[in-house]
Structures are given as C-alpha cells and as structure tokens.
Design brief:
The complex is a heterodimer of chains A (307) and B (182).
Chain A lengths: L16 H18 L13 E6 L5 H12 L3 E6 L11 H9 L5 E6 L4 H6 L5 E7 L5 H15 L6 E5 L6 H12 L3 E5 L15 E3 L2 H7 L2 E4 L15 H8 L3 H5 L6 E3 L12 H4 L6 H20 L3
Parallel strand pairs in A: 1-2, 1-3, 3-4, 5-6, 5-8, 6-7, 8-9
Helix pairs in contact in A: 1-11, 2-11, 5-6, 5-11
Chain B lengths: L2 E5 L1 H19 L5 E6 L2 H16 L5 E5 L30 E9 L3 H10 L7 E11 L10 E7 L4 E6 L9 E6 L4
Parallel strand pairs in B: 2-3, 2-4, 4-5, 5-6
Antiparallel strand pairs in B: 1-8, 7-8
The chains are: A alpha/beta (307), B alpha/beta (182).
Chain lengths: 307, 182
Amino acid sequence: MQQLSTRHLLGIENLSPADIGLIFETADNFKAVLNRPIKKVPSLRDITIANVFFENSTRTKLSFELAEKRLSADVVNFASGSSSVKKGETLIDTVNNILAMKVDMVVMRHSSPGAPHFLSRHIQASIVNAGDGTHEHPTQALLDAFSIREKLGEVAGKKVAIIGDILHSRVALSNIFCLQKLGAEVMVCGPATLLPRYIRELGVQVEHDVFRALQWCDVANVLRIQLERQQIKYFPSLREYSLYYGINKKLLNRLDKEIVIMHPGPINRGVELNSDVADSEHSIILQQVENGVAIRMAVLYLLAGQK
Amino acid sequence: MQKRLVLDQKQLSITISRFCYQLIENHDDFENTVLLGLQPRGALVLDRIIQRMQEIRQLSLRYGYLDATFHRDDFRRRDLPLRANETKIDFLIENRKVILVDDVLYKGRSARAAMDAMIAFGRPQKVELMVLIDRKYTRDFPIQPDYFGRQVNTLESQYVSVEWQSQGFPEDAIWITEKEHN
C-alpha cells in the first residue's frame, strides 16, 4: 500500500489498519529527519496549509505548525477569537474565504462534533481534523499508538486502559478506534458519570476501580478532567476525584508490574496525575509530544501526495 | 516482452571488483571518505561493493544508506506518492569525501534529490557519483557519473532493471526491457 484510502483525515473510524501502518512507517522516517542536524525537508514546498482553530489549543496547534514548517509548507494561522466568526460569519464562508487565497489543506479544530466532516462535503481542499468537540482527535490517537509501538515494540496484544473523563474526551474515542484496529485490548476506567452509557458497545471493557484497571493494563493513558465541557457537576469535587482516580507513585508501587503512563496533555497535576508519576521513568508524556510532530508530518505528507 | 541482457552475473561481478579497485586507487585507506547507497536499489549495489572491498583489503569503511524520497521534485506529480525508505547514516559528512552509489543513472533527478538530502548531514568536501548503468543522452540535469559500470543507449520506452540473486532472481543480471503499456 502506497497511499491512504482517504483524501481527508476526519477520524480514525474510517481509517484501515493498513492506513495506520502506512502513517507509522512514514512517521518513522520523519522521526529520523527530526533527529538530524537539519530537521527540514522540502516535500511540501509548493503547498499552503491553513490552521483553522475555532477552539483553543497550544500543543496541537504548535505541533501541526512545526510539522508543516519542517515539511517546508507555507502556513497561515487562523484563530476564531480574533476573526469575523465573531461578526456572524458561517463556517463554510470562513473556510471558503481562506481557500480563495489558494490554500491546499486545512487543519481544523472545532467545538462541534462533525464540523470537519461537514466541511469536507463542501470544499475541495484536504481536511485534517485536529479535534472536533467530543468526537475525534485522530492525530492524537495516532501519536499515542505510535508511542506505544515505540516503547513496547508493538501495539497488537497490548492492554491499554484509558482512565478519566471518557464522556467528554475526543482523545478517548479516537484511541479506542485506533488501538482496536491495531489489535490491542482496551479498557475504560472512570466514575460512572464520566463514562458514556453505551461505551461497552465499542467492544471495550469497563472498570470503575482505578487500581484494578492499572493492575490489568500494560499502558495507562490518563485523560484530563475537561471542566470546560462540563455543564453540570459529574463528581462532588476535584479533591474527591483525585482521591479515587488520581494516579500517584504510591498507587503504582502497589502494582506487581511496571506499566507505561501516557497523557495527551495538558496535565492537571495533582488531579488526574501526580508529579511523581508524570515526571517518572514510567511516563512517556514528552515522547508523545515529540512523536506528535513526526505523526503530523506523515499525515500531511501522505494526504498532500495524493493527486 | 523483449529483453536485452546488458551485464550477466560474471560481468557484474567484474564490474563490482573494478569499482573497488578504482575507489582504492582514488581514496586510498578511506580515512576521509564515506560511501552512501541511495535507497532502495543503490543500497544493494553498495552492499556488494562493501562485501567485495572486505575481500580485497581489510579496510574500516564508513558507509550508510540515504533515502531522498522527501527531497524529490516529482512529489504530487506522480500517480502514487513514493514510499520512503530508511535513512541510516550514523556519522556526519562535514568536510568528508562522499561517494554516492546508485544502480542506474537516468534523468539525474534522483541524484539531484540525493545531493539535497545529503546536505542535512553536513557540507561535504567533494561528492562523487558511482552507478552500475549510465543511460546516455537521457539527462534532465547536468549530472554525470564519476564511475560507471556500463553506458547504454536507451529509449524512453525502455526500462533498465537490475536483478540480484539475493532479491529472489535466478542470478545477478542487468536487463533492458520495454516498459509495459496498459
């Protein structure tokens, strides 16, 4: 297989395992490029990419921008806070105006699930979903699985527990799709109020006891409590959440094995993850960030390479 | 399909030996010289050269494999994107003499991309190009080999294929074949 089966990266759900394999293989090569004295290749020198972020982002936006620049693409950035969206412009109008300036690809983050899918039906440019509401965040799932593969050799057969706010997490859903396509077993763990009601139908195990989840898994992907998406109270207090679901060194020491700790960031230190774990040798959080650039380079390169 | 043999196993072996002696003549003990095989097929030629070189003279050679996929100028102009291969170079080429090794020199575009890719590892003192087959009068770029196995006259409609036993072919050989038209 030499090219992706899709023109856009809207989610992991519509990618095949072969697509994911191709992205990983390409990312391996880009990771090598990133470790060279000159970290740039000219592949996308005649491509212009618009980063259209209707929602706040620090690392994803930075990571995409760096990936685009490492590939020599021209980059334009758009943040909704300082744009005509505030004046009532529609999504299609905003993006069509950007595309009228001869933009070839759009990397988009939006708070509405399905926004990039909607856009892909109306515009010609390739779209990369950088997170759509609580739906999907495909490049995060790809870099997470890539990091597991790098750390443990392969993803197939590994047990991954996703712990925390599953209900509001696009990372969780994309991770479930991605890990299952690669042959891993997935468990979700969190308070019942933060687990979607029909999550079992995705073929994942459900656990409410964090110690049992950690004891079961090879990798724990710890998610942030997304207070900004919570309209009502899902648990009594952050202190109580931290007491029952926070992961600290003491908890890890009680396990009879070593596990890998991941977090997509930003970390709420002392809530879902304690510093003694986040900064420990178990954690591959910074490797995830590093791999993010290589994965995004691979995705942009493969999508741009299609005729 | 018409096929014309350019080099058979014995001739190919003699060519590899000649390459080794030419390199030893020009680069002595290879103290300041590195060899880079262009991925994917130049790497196979380089492996042969390294193997023969060790048989001729015990030298500590510095060599690696260079992939120029991300530096090609035909990205988005082909039906399918090219698949990248591993670049394996664990040294810098700053101020060193570099010998780029490939199987066939045709338009010169791969060699141009390779030189571009190579610069990421430093500024070489000198670069030489070694190819098994030089397809004459077909160049798009002003690039000529410093060492070649054989020069051949070919048409656009033809393809030069280098076959290695290690790749599952009956024996090492280089052929000129007509491209298949669908």
